[in-house]
Task: inverse folding
């Protein structure tokens, strides 16, 4: 789609999973890339692949976005290089799985730092410049987990509920400004998201490529929300609007118990 051709997109969490798929899909649509994550080697290899396969520019900014200065270091690196970002894709995210009190707090704290604080900081740092220039786009990768509390992923779902609320509010503030904001709400996606935990991905998980392609198609269509996963993922996001919250959270807890997330 021509919306992306010749534009510069910054993708966080580009070293693997959905972020890597988004980067490949953007390059295939003619966008230049700024790839951000901690794994400099993996980003370097991807940058080389994108340059060779699609003839686009691809640069790397290795950063720990969960560190207090991580997001501002990325913004400073862009300024120093003179790189203007047309599309910011806040994709990097992590989440703890298991009963809240059975885990060390560190993983949940890291998720808040990355999924919430870094997302807001990059939106502010890079979005301000887009506003000055009068055009740009911001895509926040949240999750279908944003729409209801999720027992055994309590902290993670709460960070995604934050992203949903924040994204909708900022999208409305910026309506008519030339800067568009969209949230993407995937369901289970076949990535290494659960690596390092005892949880396993649902066998019904969709491919990261499908999530990436549908998210970018929806943004190009001018949508403010994208549901790039299975139709059933989207249907489930309606349940909390129809049922009492106490019932919705019971059902969500039951689903996660079926996946044995209570035993992680
Ligand atoms: N997979 C799913 O089922 C699913 C469903 C709905 C929503 N999502 C959301 O989709 C997004 C991507 O998830 P995924 O499944 O692709 O996960 P993933 O395969 O685990 O990839 C996570 C990415 O985030 C980066 N990252 C992690 N910690 C970071 C940090 N401190 N600083 C900078 N980058 C960091 C990782 O790179 P480094 O390790 O190199 O830093 C990696 O590139 C997340 O926001 C997730 O919540 C996933």
Result:
């Amino acid at each position: 789609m021509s919306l992306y051709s010749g534009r510069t997109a910054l993708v966080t969490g580009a070293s693997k999973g959905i972020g890597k798929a988004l980067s490949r899909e953007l390059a295939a649509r003619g966008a230049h890339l700024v790839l951000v994550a901690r794994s400099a080697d993996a980003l370097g290899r991807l940058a080389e692949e994108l340059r060779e396969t699609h003839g686009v520019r691809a640069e790397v900014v290795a950063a720990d976005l969960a560190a207090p200065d991580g997001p501002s270091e990325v913004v400073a690196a862009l300024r120093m290089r003179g790189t203007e970002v047309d599309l910011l894709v806040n994709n990097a995210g992590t989440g703890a799985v298991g009963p809240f009190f059975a885990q060390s707090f560190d993983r949940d704290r890291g998720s808040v730092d990355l999924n919430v604080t870094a997302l807001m900081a990059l939106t502010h740092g890079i979005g301000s410049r887009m506003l000055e220039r009068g055009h740009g786009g911001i895509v926040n990768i949240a999750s279908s987990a944003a729409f209801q509390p999720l027992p055994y992923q309590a902290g993670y779902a709460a960070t995604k509920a934050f992203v949903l609320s924040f994204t909708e509010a900022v999208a409305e503030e910026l309506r008519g400004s030339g800067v568009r904001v969209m949230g993407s709400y995937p369901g289970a996606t076949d990535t290494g998201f659960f690596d390092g935990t005892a949880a396993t991905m649902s066998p019904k998980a969709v491919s990261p490529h499908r999530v990436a392609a549908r998210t970018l198609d929806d943004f190009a269509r001018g949508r403010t929300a994208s549901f790039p996963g299975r139709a059933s993922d989207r249907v489930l996001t309606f349940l909390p609007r129809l049922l009492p919250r106490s019932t919705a959270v019971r059902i969500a807890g039951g689903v996660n118990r079926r996946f044995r997330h209570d035993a992680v």
User: Anything to note?
Assistant: The mean pLDDT is 96. The two ends are 42 Å apart (CA to CA).
